[in-house]
Amino acid sequence: MLKKTLAISMLAMLGNAYAATPSDELIFKFMEVSNVKGALETMRANADTALRNNLLQSLQYQQLNDRQKKIAEEASEKVVRIQQENLSYDAIIKLVLPLYRRTFTQDELQAAINFYSSPAGKSINQKMPQLAAESMKLTNELNQKVIPQYQKIAQEAVERIKQAN
């Protein structure tokens, strides 16, 4: 009976070792080989542009006089600066590190590191930032088309709400 209990305990420990929570060192290695930093920087740059454009469009920038445009531009720079502070690489890493620990096992991250270190993994990795940038550009173009529609609906709603008094 003691041997059976010992064997079961050892199997349970092996199972736990297999599903071990990855170390921060392994997570950082994965982030390095999978170019998480590059991807985040590309996404943030695109997000900065989108935020700036959306704010200026919501302020109807094209219809403003020069003095008003300067105010709108200052406001857009302020919101972008706030976004940059809150979406810095270090700030994002602090947020996602616990997610990586909960989501992946040590073995899964090691397998991903092995893949991203391979020629195929490196090739895919090099193409991902461009793919992300082009995807974001398409999304921004779509937003530029639909935001005026949203604004029109909102303005109509404001007018109807005022009339409902």
TrEMBL record:
Signal sequence, start to end: 1-19
InterPro entries: DUF2059
Keywords: Signal
Residue stretches making up the DUF2059 domain: 90-149
Pfam families: DUF2059 (PF09832)
Name listed for the protein in its UniProt record: DUF2059 domain-containing protein
Organism: Methylobacillus flagellatus (strain ATCC 51484 / DSM 6875 / VKM B-1610 / KT)
